[in-house]
Design a protein that fits this description.
This protein is an alpha+beta fold. Helices cover about 55% and strands about 10% of the residues. It contains 29 helices and 13 strands. The strands form three sheets. Strands 5-4-3-8-7-6 form a six-stranded antiparallel beta sheet. Strands 9-10-11-13-12 form a five-stranded mixed beta sheet. The protein has a two-stranded antiparallel sheet with strand order 1-2. Strand 9, helix 27 and strand 10 form a beta-alpha-beta unit. About 5% of the residues have low confidence.
Length: about 725
Amino acid sequence: MRDLQLPHTVTTAIEGANVPPLPQVLLRLIQQVDDESSTIDSLAAIVSQDPGLAARILTAANSAAYYRSTALGDIKSCVVLLGTRMVRSMATSLAVKRLFDADRGAVAADLTDFWRHSLVVAETSRAVAIATGYPKPDEAYLAGLLHDVGQLLLMSALGEQYAWLLSQTGTEDKLLELERSSLSTDHGEVGTWMADQWKLDSELADAILFHHADAAEIATASSLPRLVWFADALARGVEGPVPFEELAMTLLGADASFDPGRTLARALDHVQVIATAMGVAARPESDEASPARTLPNVTVLAPPSPHQEADRALADHIRDMAVMHPLQQDLFTLTSDEELLGALRESARILFELPRMGFLLIDRESGELTGTSIAGQAAIFRQTRIARGIDAGLATRALAEREVCSSFDDGPAHRESLLDRQLARTFGSEGILALPMVGKRRIVGVMLFALGRAEHARLKRRTPWLQNFGRIGGMSVEAWQDATSYRKQAEDEAAAAFRLQARRVVHEAGNPLGIIKSYLRILDQKLPENSEVRHELDVLRDEIDRVAGIVRRMNEVPPPATETASVAVNALVRELLALYAAPLFGDKGIAITKHLGEDSDRAACDPDSLKQILVNLWKNAAEATPQGGRFDISVLDGVMENGKRHVEIRMEDSGTGMPDEAIRNLSFPDPSHAQAERGHGLSIVGSLAARIGCRISCRSKAGVGTTLSLLLPCVQVS
C-alpha cells in the first residue's frame, strides 16, 4: 500500500526516529564484526534477529546515498551493500545513542518481551510459509519480524507521550485503541509508512498494516498478510471462535496434517536457543489467565540529583570523551571518502535523529567550500562553490566561529543568505543547522542538516555532543585526506625512482643488444646468398628488436597506447617455433606436434604482445611437462564467436596440470600472485591478453595435462 497518509505531527516526529535494538543483540553484532572469522551470512543472521537492527540496516541501504534504482528487501543484500565497516560504525552509533538516552527525562525501555514476540512471529511466519507452500519464506520472516516495528518508531519519536500509552495497557488490542484515540493513527500504519519509505514490496508493507484486522477482514487479503496475521495471532494466543487448525485451512489452504501448536512450539524453542546465546534472561512462565507480554516495558527516568555546575561540566566532558571514542576509532578504520562520509551520515541520523543532511568540504588547493565531488547528495551541494572569505550564511559562519549555528539561534539575528534559503527549500524544512568539522590542524568543512523549530529545542541541550561529533568527523576526514596526500606523494616518489632506475637499465641493456644485432648483420654478410640460415637470422633479429622494445618501455609509465595492428598467426607461430622449439622442448625430450596452415585471416593484435604471450605459455608448458611428454599446437582460421571471425591457437601438453591460482591469473591477473607456482608468467599473459582483446580458456587436470585456447579477433574487412 503506497502513499499512506499519517497525521503531520506523527510524520514529522518519526521521520528521524531511531528504532532501538535489543542491547544484547547489539552487543553480539559488535562482537561478531570484530571477529575476523565472521562472514556476511553470520552478520546478516544477527541483524535478522532484531526488528530494530533490521529497520536500521534497511533504512541505510535504501537511502539516496547508494543510488539504487530498485530497493533492497532482504537483510543479507543490505549488509553486502553496506559492508562490514559501515555495519560496525552503525552498531557503535546505536550503542552511543543508548547513552544519550540516559539524559534526564528520557524514557528507559526494556525490549525483551517485544523482541521475543517479534522473533517468534518471524520464525512462525517462515515455518507456516514453508508448510503451506508460500514461495518466499524469507520474505514472510522479514514481514513477521517487522510487523510491530511501528511501536519502536513511536516510542523513539514521541518519548514520554507514547510511554504513557504503553503503561496504560498490557495488550496490543488495547494499545491500538489508545493509539487511534490519542494519535489519530496506530503502530501498524506507522510501520507501513516506514516500509513504504524503504520501497519494500507492497504486499510486505500490507502485512504490517493489516496484522490487527479481524478474522473476517483478513480472509479477503492476499497471501502474505494472511500468513503474518495468522502467525501473530498464534504467537499471542488470540484464538477466536474458530480453532487455529480450521483457520489455517481457511486462510492458508493448509492440509489436515498441519499442526499450529507444534509449529509454534518449535518457533518458541528456536527463539529460546537464540535468547540463551545472546544472554537474554529466560522468559518467566505465563498462564492462560495472564498471557506473556508482547509490548515494550517503559519507564520515565527520574532526573539525576543536582551537582555543582563545575563538577557536572567535568563529568559531561569525561563522558563525552569516553562514549565517543569507539565511534572515532571506527571512523578511522574506513578506507575511502565514500565510506567515511556515509558512516558520518548514518551516525548523525542515529545519534541526533537528523535524517536529511549534506556536506561541504574545503578544497585544499583552492580553499573553496564545495560539495562538487561528494556523491549521494542533493544537486545544490554539488553545484555550490564558495570562495575563501565570502560570507554565505550559516555554513561560513559556523566555520568562522567554530560553533554550531542554526536558523533559530538566540541573540542578534543574522542575515539569512540565499544559500540558507536554497538549502532549507531543498530539505523541505523550516531552517538549517550548520556543524563545523574541525580537525586537529585545520577545519575541513561543514555538515548541514534540515532543522525545524521543534528539533532545535530538542537539540539545544545536546550542543556539546554535536560539537564533539563535528570534531570527530573533522579529525576523521582530515586523517583520510592526509593519508591520501601521503600515499600520492609516496607513489610519485616511487614512480620517479623507478623511472630513474629504468633509464639506467635501458641504457645498460641497450648496448649489448645493439652489439649482438651488429654481429648478426656481419654474420649475414658472410653467408652465401642461398643459405637457409638467413631466415633464422631474420627471426633472431626480430626477437632482439622485440626484447629491446620491452626494455625501452620500462622507461614509460604508464606504457604508451599502441595502434591496433594485425598479424599472420600461422607465420608467427612458425617463426617462434624455429627459435624456441629446441631450447624449450627438444632439449628436454618433449615431442612437438604442429597443425599449421595458411593465413587466410589476420588477427587484430600487435605481434610483439602475441609473441610474449606464446613464449610465456610455452615456457610454462615446458616446465610442467616431464621428459618424454608431448606438446601439441594448432592454429584454426574462421572460428565464429558472437557473429565475428576469430583465429584460434590451441595448445595441449601432457604435463602436471596447472594450479587453480595460476589459472585464475589468466583471467584476473594480479601482481600479488607473482610468487605462485607458474603464476608470474601467466599474470603477464593475462594482462597482455586483456589489452589486445584475446580471450583465453583453460582446461587442466592434475597428472593429465593442460589444454589452452587463445581466441583472437580477426581484422574486420569492410
